[in-house]
Specification:
This protein is mostly beta strands. It has 1 helix and 27 strands. A hairpin with a 2-residue loop joins strand 23 and strand 24. The protein starts with 5 loop residues before the first strand and ends with a strand.
């Protein structure tokens, strides 16, 4: 299936009017809503993911390997005990955290991370564990997924539950070099987990209707493949579609909608070039049997967290998709119509590398920032003005 592509050069987007980064009183003006950036908590070391619990606590992963608790507006001084060892180097570390859909009754949370393994040397592999979060501690229950992959980075690691309770997980291509025969790249090979979206039950078992379940030589957990490094993952609130953002190389960050069995083309097709020298990578931008993105960025913004907005604090933003950017230090608002991105507006920029974007249960938009200019690494939220 081929999807319509939307593409906006940086100068062609509708830009927000940015006030200086600092005080809580600064008002950011956008096409539909003005807002303030309000501090929630700070003092994190590379916060990677935000999760909200029913009792009001906020869980935040730090890439260095710590799970932290924000309670009553304060970051508790001690990390959550019980978190396993992670490969905390380069792009590796403790990544995503999401509560089980029935967390209120089972106290279960899921964590993705770069798992150390002696046979993989310094890099490890992408893994997902589940455990109970009680009395401010984590008790491991079991491992629900471990990727068959190896490489220097590009772990992916985003998690999302859909309304039917299926758990989706992104795994990157592990920085496998796109040289020679591009069709032979590991991301085009179903016998491993390089560059895939995974779909499993909450206990790690494989759904019988997964597209490659039962196929000889294919990993049964794979839902879609041909991805590069997906670090944004969100379930559409209306139709349950699996939306993701994935890093391109130099140019070509993408928004895709993952469908069963589909091939998204990396590295055979794409819109980027090599980091050094800007030389050609892809055979083309289109190919038979390979999906087109619904949106892409040139230049890249370094896509990260991703969230659909469904709340009542910003009514004109309902149904919009919010994408964070690492290199761009931005949050982009994407307007979706009939499965297409029809407009993009940068609503936040220049406050630091954006690791995660989430809608809180209060209807505000929360953002995890890394390496702000004043040395603080905060969680902030966007609150409407007027």
């Amino acid at each position: 299936m081929t999807r319509a592509v939307s593409f906006f050069l940086s100068g062609a987007v509708l830009a927000a009017v940015f006030s200086p980064v600092s005080a809580q009183s600064d008002v950011r003006r956008t096409a539909h809503h003005d807002f303030r950036v309000v501090p929630v908590a700070e003092g994190f070391e590379v916060p990677w993911s935000i999760a909200f619990l029913p009792d009001g606590d906020i869980l935040v992963t730090e890439r260095a390997g710590r799970l932290r608790i924000v309670r009553d507006g304060k970051l508790l001084p001690d990390p959550v005990p019980g978190i396993p060892e992670v490969v905390a180097r380069g792009q590796g570390g403790l990544m995503d955290v999401v509560p089980h859909p029935d967390f209120a009754s089972n106290r279960m949370i899921y964590i993705s991370y770069s798992k150390p393994r002696e046979d993989l040397g310094r890099a490890g592999t992408t893994a997902v564990i589940r455990g109970t979060f009680e009395n401010d501690g984590f008790t491991l229950v079991d491992e629900v997924f471990e990727a068959v992959s190896r490489g220097g980075g590009h772990y992916g690691c985003r998690l999302a539950f859909d309304a039917d309770g299926y758990l989706y997980l992104s795994v990157g291509d592990r920085m496998a070099s796109p040289t020679g025969d591009l069709a032979a790249h590991p991301a085009q090979d179903l016998s491993n987990h390089h560059g895939v979206i995974v779909r499993i039950h909450d206990d790690g078992s494989v759904p019988e209707d997964n597209p490659f379940a039962g196929r000889a030589g294919a990993m049964p957990e794979i839902w879609s493949y041909g991805h590069r490094n997906p670090q944004g993952l969100a379930i559409h609130p209306d139709d349950g579609g699996v939306w993701l953002t994935e890093h391109g190389p130099r140019g070509g960050d993408e928004v895709n909608v993952s469908t069963a069995g589909a091939n998204y083309g990396w590295p055979v097709i794409g819109y980027g070039v090599n980091y050094r020298g800007g030389t050609k990578i892809h055979d083309a931008t289109h190919a038979e049997g390979m999906e087109q993105p619904v949106h892409f960025w040139v230049p890249s913004i370094g896509v990260s967290g991703l969230a659909f907005y469904t709340g009542d604090k910003f009514p004109e933003w309902r149904g919009n998709l919010f994408a964070g950017g690492l290199a761009g230090q931005n949050v982009d608002r994407l307007t979706i119509e009939d499965g297409r991105v029809v407009a993009r507006e940068t609503i936040l920029q220049g406050m630091g590398r954006v690791r995660d974007v989430r809608e809180g249960p209060d209807g505000y938009i929360y953002v995890a920032l890394e390496a702000r200019g004043d040395g603080q690494t905060p969680i902030v939220r966007l609150e409407p003005v007027g």
